[in-house]
């Protein structure tokens, strides 16, 4: 969006990017160093980049600022997996072996796989898991 707002449609792509302090060709922006091959000096591409005047430095500054912001974590579990795990905990608790032969076990998960899925749910939603376990204990007390 920063580039879009600073873009001048009357100029070429190379001119617009140069005014913003951006490179239009990354191969030319970073010079290739000289290399030595078997004792001989081989010079890289002879293109030398001259000093360019950056007329719109705010574009690069805004892009750098935006890139430095921390990312939002958007890791979530699918609703199906959450329902599956809650169902298994509700009906079988910690007995993973009993939950393997159950009809809701569509993917025929082994006891270890079910335990792993429950642990992933615990790690992703620790507060929700605690509330769920507390509600199960409350239901058991109400039934007795």
TrEMBL record:
Keywords: Nucleus. It comes from Spheniscus mendiculus. GO terms for cellular component: nucleolus. This is Nucleolar protein 16. Belongs to the NOP16 family. It is found in: Nucleus, Nucleolus. The keyword Nucleus applies. The keyword Flavoprotein does not apply. It comes from the Eukaryota. The gene is Nop16. One of its GO terms (biological process) is ribosomal large subunit biogenesis. Signal peptide: none annotated. InterPro entries: Ribosome_biogenesis_Nop16.
């Amino acid at each position: 969006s920063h580039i879009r707002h600073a873009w001048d449609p009357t100029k070429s792509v190379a001119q617009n990017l140069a005014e913003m302090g951006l490179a239009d060709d990354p191969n030319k922006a970073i010079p290739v160093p000289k290399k030595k091959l078997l004792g001989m000096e081989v010079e890289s591409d002879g293109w030398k980049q001259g000093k360019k005047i950056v007329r719109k430095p705010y574009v690069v500054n805004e892009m750098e600022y935006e890139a430095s912001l921390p990312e939002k974590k958007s890791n979530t579990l699918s609703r199906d997996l959450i329902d599956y795990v809650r169902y298994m905990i509700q009906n079988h608790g910690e007995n993973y072996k009993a939950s393997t032969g159950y009809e809701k076990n569509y993917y025929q998960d082994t006891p270890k796989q079910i335990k792993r899925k429950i642990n992933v749910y615990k790690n992703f939603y620790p507060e929700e898991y605690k509330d769920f376990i507390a509600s199960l204990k409350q239901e058991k007390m109400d039934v007795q």
